[in-house]
Amino acid sequence: MTEIMTNAPMSERSKFFRVLIRRKTVLFGLMVLAIFVVLAVFAPLITPYAPNKLSIVNRLKPPDMRWFFGTDEFGRDVFSRTIFSARLSLMVGFAVVVLASLIGVTLGILAGFFQKLDAPITRLIDAMMAFPDILLAIALVAALGPSLTTVIVALSIVYAPRLARIVRASTLVIRELPYVEAATSLGISTRHIMTRHILRNLLSPILVQGTFLFANAMLAEAGLSFLGLGVSPEVPTWGTMIASGRQYIGKADWMTLFPGIAIVLAVLSLQMVGDGFRDLLDPRLRKDL
Amino acid sequence: MKSLKLALLLGSALIAVSPAAFAQSKGGVINVATIGEPPTLDAMASTADLVGIVSQHIFETLYTFDKSWNVTPLLAASLPDVSADGKVYTIKLHTGVKFHDGTDMDAADVVASLKRWTEIASRGKQTAPMISSIEAADPATVKITLTAPYAPLVSLLAFNNAAAIILPSEKQQNPMTDPIGTGPYMLKERKADQYIQLTRFADYKSAEGDENGYGGARHQYLDEIRFVPVPDPNTRVEGALSGQFDYVDSLPVEAFDRLKDQKATEAVLLKPFGWPVFVMNTSQGITKSQDLRLAVRDALSMEDMMAAAFGSTDFYTLNPSMYPDGYSWKTDAGTQGAYNVADPEKAAEELKKAGYNGEPLRILTSRQYEFHYKMAQVAAEYLKAAGFTVDMQVVDWATLTQRRADPKLWDIYISHSPFLPEPALIGAMSTSAPGNWDTPARKVAVDAFNAEVDPQKRVALWAEVQKVIYAEVPIIKIGDFNALSAKSPKLEGFTPAPWPYFWNVSLKQ
Amino acid sequence: MLRYILQRFIGMIIVMFLVVTIVFIIVRVTPGDPAAVMLGPEATAADIAALRQQLGLDQSIPVQYVYFIGNLVQGDLGQSIFLDQPVLQALAQRAEPTFFLTIFSLLIASVIAIPIGIYAAYRRGSFFDQAATALAMLAASIPSFWLGLILMQIFAVRFGLFPVSGYGGPGTSLTERLGYLVLPAFALGIVSSALIMRFTRASMLDVLGDDYIRTARAKGVDERRVVLKHAFKNALIPILTVVGLTAAVLISGAVVTETVFGLPGVGSLVVSAVLRRDYPVIQGALLIIAALYVLINFAIDMLYLVVDPRVRY
């Protein structure tokens, strides 16, 4: 989509402001993400309690100086659990991005670069994308048996086609770029072209899509865990925390409130960063979305 | 048997339940929120309480329990005549009883149904080896001949799950295709996961006498009873608070505070209701080792499990005995140093003795009963501390009941039971019940208990059974708990009961 | 053009075939013997073997695959294990709440998103635009089940405006049943309004830059008329497309939301089927939903052909 001048009044100042805001949101997103990553990595050092440390006498205590986010029905510290959840939720999101990218990029490049493979791969992608993501994930988790690994594998299988489709489109564009065409006609090996030109050019779209995928995967994991079809319920993730806190809404709202806010913050910051990446890194994909 | 002297099970209800002295009005429809979709309506095929709660309105048994948990006739005209040697039971039937399809109930129906019961129902299968024949003496009399005296027989015939319900002789298919019974309400429509709609059976013939627990007169005030499956406990709480349901079964005790001072609903507390239990697989897998089972028990803190599951001591009592205060069966036999041990070192030693090598201990539990799941989580932490590798498998209740039947699939499953009027009805007493507890010591103790007819002697023999249970750990009793449910203030004539029933209940106009 | 339609049609058939194959693979991978699951714990080995034979499970995988396709062609999706009824019937019984929930949420999402999107595009770069964009991002970050819980707590429990859960008892009228859908529809609608809003804004920006809009403006056509009539009309097709796409996304959201609100829809059927190990139901639901998606996509493409004269192949 090209830059469009509208006749709507828009001063230079507000344009500048807009860019700044854009950058500001990116900055905000990056900062929140960084905080989450630090919390996740150093969780054992930061958290005052072990995430599964039971303390039945202290059950359902409201937030105070001892328990910043209160305690749950087993007297476990909601703050510590929320932070340990960041660990697992981010790990699931990240693992899904990596695995889905590996599958998606391979399929996408193959389809985009080799015309013979295009039709079959595209059809496969279309077929995979006909399934609503959560539904397919549920079926896959049911098939593979619920565990942390299968949730990651299932979500990767679900999201890989979505990535593959974008990579294919980008590859098609890049393939036609003058210098790639030139390289082909110069007889430079296909493998070389793929690794050197295409992959390098694909970095930006993959980074952008990967960020959104990260956010989606985290939401999907939370949904699956909430339904009791994801990771084992004693493993702290934001989804499992909300699922178990659900029963105490109205009595111990902090059990659902804090993990809920954590998900929203994490997903929001990822979206902001993804948006920023799209604007900054990839002018060709730039959209006023 | 006739003198089954048992203390009250129905304890203090928080609401004042007035006897049916006031005039109850006829008419109205109630919505009852249940814990889920029953896997079947065939009360013979399942021991699930949920199946019992719904199906007891449709089907009836020969006997049932009165409010003091004495056996009392329902479809039978009176308690059985037992021959002097205790082997022949002659049962006179209540006459003029019609099935929902309009046919009359007679001895042929009863004989066919009881035979089906001995083939399908777990309690029936447990009884089958003791029965040498079931026959119709005349159209209104059935004769059961036993191979040896068997004291629990009439209690078994009175039970409402895995129940000896009476079906028309031509409707004996398994699985049941056409739920036709003699009960006060009949099935109108069943929409899976949505509702089970029962309507008044116009030709119902009630048992005689005043209302008395499950026995005596059954009045059909309500036009319709609808059982609505609401598997999520929290949604049930919200449904009670908003007044969407007239009765809501099995609420988490945490909801108690929220039910106070509400217009649309009020709390119903049944105290004590029952006991949570960890059932061990004694036939296969790692829990086949008695030392390992001891290790599991000694690792656990009953106190923490009960507190996590039920909140305050208003809702639970720590009690090692298989029965609570007020029951003649209550005894401390065998429980010393074997309850609420919570000693990881001791458990670790026992584990070493059992030759445990870190094989996963598969704990099967469900979230349909939230307290099962909470106890499982606390148990998991204590078991890990003792050196167990815990593999917690959280499934829905229907799946759990399916899986526990296959000893290859689990090591421990978590369940609960109401305090049963007759100890012989406790699941683990039967070798065919999940867990398959079958040892020489069990056989000696249980056989002696079942054959004895004198109530006084049976109490002493029960203490022996409890000793063996504590020595061999086929099951682990966690404690006593009270049950919370909620009812609309408009419901009249409701009596709190472990399996709530809605005949004799009416709606205030 | 006819050639294009034919091409698209063949493509759709191939995709459909792949969908069926994927479902077949997923179900075959699933552990556990379906026959043993169907017969329950009391079954003897002989019973299981007999049923395996009856179901064709003793056949080789390719043969099973052929049978599977054969049954599908005859419209046979198999029998639910837990519910003891044909899968197709079970799905049909639960289609209504899911269908209305999807329609409602779409309606709510569109009513929120389209006007905001139009105005944001018109006042591009303004505070309103930025706020709208930020809010859209926020909305897309909220898990719908969490929002559902909050809405339920406020509007159903505290104020008692709507029922908490379920879909009414026997004999409830359609209007009453729809009352059960208000809260879940809002939970889903708000979350999915983000995509529609951003797309509306983008399409409007695109159109507002077109020549004929400038011409209209130059001619002195009333500004409101320019934006709402000329520009919006032309931006409508991409907007409708994204609304259609959102419908597909909504089915995913419905799975979780139906469970939160105890709606007996297709989504909660699948969730309970997974918990009940009712494989034929999982398989049937996946197939039907994916097939619908493929068909709708095909229909949209064909519609484009009719509606948009600019589309030429």
TrEMBL record, chain A:
<keyword id="KW-0472">Membrane</keyword>
<feature type="transmembrane region" description="Helical">
    <location>
        <begin position="254"/>
        <end position="277"/>
    </location>
</feature>
<dbReference type="Pfam" id="PF00528">
    <property type="entry name" value="BPD_transp_1"/>
</dbReference>
<dbReference type="InterPro" id="IPR035906">
    <property type="entry name" value="MetI-like_sf"/>
</dbReference>
<dbReference type="GO" id="GO:0005886">
    <property type="term" value="C:plasma membrane"/>
</dbReference>
<protein>
    <submittedName>
        <fullName>Peptide ABC transporter permease</fullName>
    </submittedName>
</protein>
<dbReference type="InterPro" id="IPR000515">
    <property type="entry name" value="MetI-like"/>
</dbReference>
<dbReference type="InterPro" id="IPR025966">
    <property type="entry name" value="OppC_N"/>
</dbReference>
<dbReference type="Pfam" id="PF12911">
    <property type="entry name" value="OppC_N"/>
</dbReference>
<dbReference type="InterPro" id="IPR050366">
    <property type="entry name" value="BP-dependent_transpt_permease"/>
</dbReference>
<feature type="domain" description="ABC transmembrane type-1">
    <location>
        <begin position="86"/>
        <end position="274"/>
    </location>
</feature>
<keyword id="KW-0813">Transport</keyword>
<comment type="similarity">
    <text>Belongs to the binding-protein-dependent transport system permease family.</text>
</comment>
<keyword id="KW-0812">Transmembrane</keyword>
<feature type="transmembrane region" description="Helical">
    <location>
        <begin position="134"/>
        <end position="160"/>
    </location>
</feature>
<feature type="transmembrane region" description="Helical">
    <location>
        <begin position="90"/>
        <end position="114"/>
    </location>
</feature>
<feature type="transmembrane region" description="Helical">
    <location>
        <begin position="26"/>
        <end position="46"/>
    </location>
</feature>
<keyword id="KW-1003">Cell membrane</keyword>
<dbReference type="GO" id="GO:0055085">
    <property type="term" value="P:transmembrane transport"/>
</dbReference>
<keyword id="KW-1133">Transmembrane helix</keyword>
From TrEMBL, chain B:
<keyword id="KW-0732">Signal</keyword>
<dbReference type="InterPro" id="IPR039424">
    <property type="entry name" value="SBP_5"/>
</dbReference>
<protein>
    <submittedName>
        <fullName>Peptide ABC transporter</fullName>
    </submittedName>
</protein>
<feature type="signal peptide">
    <location>
        <begin position="1"/>
        <end position="23"/>
    </location>
</feature>
<dbReference type="InterPro" id="IPR030678">
    <property type="entry name" value="Peptide/Ni-bd"/>
</dbReference>
<dbReference type="InterPro" id="IPR000914">
    <property type="entry name" value="SBP_5_dom"/>
</dbReference>
<comment type="similarity">
    <text>Belongs to the bacterial solute-binding protein 5 family.</text>
</comment>
<feature type="domain" description="Solute-binding protein family 5">
    <location>
        <begin position="71"/>
        <end position="415"/>
    </location>
</feature>
<dbReference type="Pfam" id="PF00496">
    <property type="entry name" value="SBP_bac_5"/>
</dbReference>
<dbReference type="GO" id="GO:1904680">
    <property type="term" value="F:peptide transmembrane transporter activity"/>
</dbReference>
<dbReference type="GO" id="GO:0043190">
    <property type="term" value="C:ATP-binding cassette (ABC) transporter complex"/>
</dbReference>
<dbReference type="GO" id="GO:0015833">
    <property type="term" value="P:peptide transport"/>
</dbReference>
<dbReference type="GO" id="GO:0030288">
    <property type="term" value="C:outer membrane-bounded periplasmic space"/>
</dbReference>
